[in-house]
Amino acid sequence: MPAPSRVLAPVAAAALALALSACGSGGGSADPYGFDGAPGAAPTTLEPPAGTILTANSTAQLGTVVIDGAGWTLYRFDGDSAEPPTATCVDACAQAWPPVTAEPGAPLTVEGVAEEAVGTVTRPDGAVQITIGGWPVYRYAAETAAGATEGHGRDDRWFAVTPDGGRAEAP
Question: How many helices (H) and strands (E) does the chain have?
Answer without folding.
Answer: 2, 11
